[in-house]
Amino acid sequence: MAKGIIIREAHFPGKAPIEAYGNGGFRFADMSHRGSLLVLPSGIHGWEPADPLALKASDFDKLFAEAGKVEILLVGMGKDLRPLPAALRAALKEAGISADPMSTGAAVRTYNVLLAEDRAVAAALIAVD
């Protein structure tokens, strides 16, 4: 019986400020992650939406599972600000979550400030090069 490498879903179980971003990933809690992140009260998760240019409510299933713990969602849309699709905005509003799309850099900075203020914040951060 051959033993192979077990690949687990990326997850950091806790809250941590984002220390750096760029080069296709992020640094936090003395670790680095390549790819996008979904930062929730339950921890920091690796996150790869099917199409970063067309986000859907299903891309946020983990967020909706924690909806009662989140008031503000910062959506780092990459290098440029893009509006959230109407269906996604409606689903977030129905869950009681205020969503603010912005560039990923602005989302990281704002997340760190709100985290330091102990606010009920989450972030969906699309990686940038």
Termini gap: 41 Å
- Give the SSE order as H and E letters: EEEEEEHEHEHE
**Strand order within the widest sheet?**
1-6-5-9-7-8
Which stretches of 5+ consecutive residues score pLDDT under 50?
none
Question: Can you characterise this structure?
Answer:
- This protein has 129 residues and is of the alpha+beta class.
- It has a single domain, classed as MTH938-like (Hypothetical Protein Mth938, Chain: A).
- It has helices at residues 61-65, 86-94, 104-116; strands spanning 11-12, 18-22, 25-28, 31-34, 37-40, 43-46, 72-76, 98-102, 121-125.
- The strands form two sheets. A six-stranded mixed sheet has the order 1-6-5-9-7-8, sandwiched between helices.
- The chain starts with 10 loop residues before the first strand and ends with a strand.
Strand-helix topology:
Blueprint: E1 11-12, E2 18-22, E3 25-28, E4 31-34, E5 37-40, E6 43-46, H1 61-65, E7 72-76, H2 86-94, E8 98-102, H3 104-116, E9 121-125
Parallel strand pairs: 7-8, 7-9
Antiparallel strand pairs: 1-6, 2-3, 3-4, 5-6, 5-9
Protein name: Mth938-like domain-containing protein
Pfam family, one: DUF498
InterPro entries: MTH938-like_sf, NDUFAF3/AAMDC
Q: In brief, what are we looking at here?
A:
The chain is of the alpha+beta class.
Keywords, separated by commas or semicolons:
3 helices, alpha+beta, about 30% strand, about 130 residues, MTH938-like_sf, three-stranded antiparallel β-sheet, NDUFAF3/AAMDC
